[in-house]
Specification:
By secondary structure, the protein is an alpha/beta fold. It has helices spanning about 45-50, 55-60, 70-80, 90-95, 115-130, 140-155, 165-170, 170-180, 195-200, 210-220, 235-255, 270-285, 300-305, 350-355, 365-380, 385-405, 425-430, 440-450; strands at about 5-10, 20, 65-70, 85, 100-105, 135-140, 155-165, 185, 225-230, 260-265, 290-295, 305-310, 320-325, 360-365, 410-415. It folds into two domains: about 10-15 and about 80-110 and about 240-450, Rossmann fold, CATH 3.40.50; about 20-70 and about 115-230, Rossmann fold (3-Layer(aba) Sandwich). A seven-stranded mixed β-sheet has the order 1-4-5-15-10-11-14, with helices on both faces. Strands 8-7-6-9 form a four-stranded parallel β-sheet, sandwiched between helices. The protein starts with 6 loop residues before the first strand and ends in an 8-residue tail after the last helix. The model has no long low-confidence stretch (mean pLDDT about 95). The structure holds pyridoxal-5'-phosphate. Pyridoxal-5'-phosphate binds near residues 265, 271, 416 and 417.
Length: about 450
């Protein structure tokens, strides 16, 4: 064995003090968000009706390379960061691969995922603006939990619209959020006009993420002192998540390590974007080269089978249009889809990079994802979130390829969180009741045909 420790931590004084804004180094900038009514780029003023002012500024800033992390956020980060960069010695040994595998583990906080990195930033700017509170939606629950933790810390009101089916299936998630003082409403609800309308039309509906977004936005815009916040996709969220990649890079440089391959799961793209940003920056500036792989579920394949076009971010079609890889906002993953990452689109930043050939994408089947999750849990000890396990699956496959060729590549992947609240999905897998659903070309074409018509 080498002298690389199992876990590489950073000293407090080595931690990043700024987020890195990758857009500053992108020649082809991501396309602007468009107002769905006028088809014109969203102005700061328009965005300010929904989002906090400082976050709007970050959303629109494509020139400032480094944006200082406010002292208060750095203090909060210190409670659960740096997150460990782990050398997966046990996994390497079990795979008998010459590859060196590292993972950055973001599951060491109560929310169980990387989402807290952006939640605390968004709550901080809301507080700084003198707001009373924020609203949001949550599907699986990690984002809602992260946001309630951040709001509790700062003394902000937090209103979470939780997709009804998750609300009923994941009562423990709900109670964690309530422990942190959030109010959690199953969506669709009678609280909002859009919720009442949907309930009248579909009385038995168990809800959807798109519907919960519409309710959260309406709640924020109809109450004085509230704004809406979102846990992925947006440029600002990727910016906050760069703390993952910056810490990783500092930790690796301490030991003279350079990754050859960087892998991350991709739902809306925030963890992957955060992990790769500093490395991609070097690649864009011609200082280094890396192979970067996004991993998505075969049942929701926006990169690998979608189109690069303007689309709505929500099923309710009230949010701004984003130019991204999308399989259409009306696409709803099959009910047997248990592995998360169910957003129909992808971060505009990552979409542009992928379009420009700067990164690759693959899709994987959910039974293979859970098999990889179990394999990983049994040798590395950590019970991974199904989302994270997409990256595990791809990292194992790359390591096995190295075994065939004898190449000693260094593989880095993002382990975004833990899977304690996903035991129903694990149970399905163990009982042999998990199936794979791969949409047909016709299904995708039907949903892509409903994309909004824009000038482009
Ligand atoms: C939300 C989440 C993801 C996917 O979101 P991205 O924005 O694509 O990072 C991945 N892993 C975990 C554990 C999550 O909670």
């Amino acid at each position: 064995m080498t002298d690389i420790p199992y876990k590489i931590y950073l000293e407090e004084n080595e931690m990043p003090t700024s987020w890195y804004n990758l857009r500053a180094d992108m020649k082809n900038k991501p396309a602007p968000l468009l107002n769905p009514g006028t088809g014109k780029p969203m102005t700061a003023e328009e965005l300010g009706a929904v989002f906090c002012d400082e976050l709007v500024a970050q959303e629109l800033d494509e020139t400032t390379p480094y944006i200082e992390i406010p002292e208060e956020i750095r203090k909060f980060y210190k409670m659960y960061r740096p997150s460990p960069l782990v050398r997966a010695y046990c996994l390497e040994e079990k795979l008998k691969t010459p590859a060196k595998i590292y993972y950055k583990f973001e599951g060491n906080n109560t929310s169980g995922s990387h989402k807290l990195n952006s939640a605390i930033a968004q709550a901080y700017y809301a507080k700084k603006q003198g707001l009373k509170g924020v609203t949001t939606e949550t599907g699986a629950g990690q984002w809602g939990t992260a946001l309630s933790m951040a709001c509790a810390y700062l003394g902000l009101d937090c209103r979470v619209y939780m997709v009804k089916v998750s609300y009923e299936q994941k009562p423990f998630r709900r109670e964690v959020m309530r422990t942190y003082g959030a109010s959690v409403t199953p969506s669709p609800s009678m609280n909002t006009e859009v919720g009442r309308k949907i309930l009248a039309e579909f009385p038995g509906t168990t809800g959807s993420l798109g519907c919960a977004i519409s309710e959260a936005v309406e709640d924020a815009t109809s109450h004085e002192g509230y704004r809406y916040v979102l846990g992925s996709v947006l440029n600002q969220v990727l910016l906050h998540q760069t703390v993952i990649g910056l810490e990783t890079k500092i930790a690796m440089e301490k030991y003279g390590i350079k990754p050859d391959i960087i892998i991350g799961c991709a739902g809306g793209g925030s963890n992957l974007g955060g992990l790769i940003s500093p490395f991609m920056g070097e690649k864009l500036r011609g200082e280094a080269d890396y192979r970067i792989i996004a991993v998505e579920p075969a049942s929701c394949p926006s990169f690998t089978r979608g189109v690069f076009a303007y689309d709505f971010c929500d099923t309710g079609m009230i949010c701004p249009l984003a130019k991204m890889y999308t399989i259409g906002s009306s696409y709803i993953p099959a009910p047997n889809h248990a592995g998360g990452l169910r957003f129909h689109g992808m971060s505009p930043i990552l979409s542009q990079l992928y379009h420009d050939g700067l990164m690759e994408a693959i899709s994987v089947n959910q039974t293979d994802v859970f098999a990889a999750a179990e394999y990983f849990a049994r040798c590395e000890g950590i019970l991974p979130a199904p989302e994270s396990s997409h990256a595990i699956k791809a990292a194992i496959d790359e390591a096995l390829r190295c075994k065939e060729t004898g190449e000693e590549k260094t593989i880095l992947f993002g382990l975004t969180g833990t899977g304690y609240f996903d035991m129903v999905a694990y149970e399905k897998f163990h009982d042999g009741n998990m199936t794979n659903y791969i949409p047909t070309d016709d299904e995708l074409a039907a949903s892509i045909a409903k994309l909004p018509k824009t000038a482009e």
